[in-house]
Amino acid sequence: MNEMSAIGYPPLRERDFVLATDLDGTFLGGTDENRAALYDWIEENRATIGLIFVTGRDPEFIADICDGTNVPWPDYVIGDVGTTIAEVRDGGSIAPIGALEEDISQRWGDKGDAVREALHGHPGLTLQQTPFRYRVSYDLAADDYRPGAEDKVAALGLDHLVSDNRFFDVLPKGVSKGPSLKRLVAHLGIEEPRVLAAGDTLNDLSMLECGIQAVAVGGAEAALLERVSHLDHVFTATEIGAAGILQAVAALDLHPTPKG
User: Fold this and answer.
1) Residue range 106-117: average pLDDT?
2) What's the CA angle centered on 194, arms 87 and 49, to 5 degrees?
3) CA neighbor of 202 nearest in space, from 182, 220, 184, 217
């Protein structure tokens, strides 16, 4: 399913509604019944609903869950905490969009080795072994963590992001989910009022803050809810995960939703 798929879906700019959603805890959150209701609704309305995954996960993970479960394939992917921007092509391949990733690559500047050297042995950080292209990520043990990693990252001209008090990501300066979503939406010519961004942890904060209407789903991280509580364009759902997305779509009158 790319900009004009083989089965005739219109481009996203022509669809009535586009869901840009985090995965863990959001699109993949909630009960089996809630997820099935959301996924079936999307699949039954692909001509009018577009789907963008905006996640910390990598394209390989996305392909695996879409191939092996009932999770719908997205039309586009913003992965690796905003450092990957890609289209989903017919047959399920996920292909980076070079025109949108060029700036990300330049901001990163091949600093992966420098990051790993600077943070090697830092208390509370355990390097994740996945070979991301434009980020370096760590598991964070909050009880063992000692301040100072933030300063080491800043000295390299990069940004850091802590989410769910469990993950420490090092990213190119100014790159995260929100800026990458804005860039993709503009590139595709989608009117922003047709888009809903959905998330549940602090690594979704830039997406919820970027000005596109958004939902913090039920069960969201308390720190995220505190940061977005003053934002009029952010809907706070009471329903968990997938059900919270449908709750927001109905409350904001973005697209007809399943009855009941």
Assistant:
1) 96
2) 55
3) 220
Per-residue exposure over 227-252, b if at least 16 CB sit within 10 Å of its own CB, e if not: bbeeeeebbbbebbbbbbbbbbbeeb
Rounded Cα gap, residues 258 and 255, in angstroms: 10
pLDDT score of 1 more than 50: no
Chain centroid to Cα 101, Å, comes to 16
Q: What is the pLDDT of residues 41-53, one digit of tens each?
A: 999 999 999 999 9
Of 167, 166, 178, 152, the C-alpha closest to 233 is 178
What b-and-e string marks burial along 83-116, b requiring 16 or more CB atoms within 10 Å of the CB?
Answer: bbbbbbeeeeebebbeebbeebeebbeebbebbe
| Sheet of 195-199, strands arranged across | 94-96, 84-88, 76-79, 49-54, 17-21, 195-199, 214-218, 234-240
Q: Cα separation of 108 and 92, whole Å?
A: 28
Residue closest to 198 by CA, chosen among 29, 39, 63: 29
Q: Write down the pLDDT at residue 259.
A: 78
List b or e across 200-214, with b for residues whose CB sees 16 or more CB atoms inside 10 angstroms. bbbbbbbbbbbebbb
**Each residue's pLDDT tens digit, 172-221:** 999 999 999 999 999 999 999 999 999 999 999 999 999 999 999 999 99
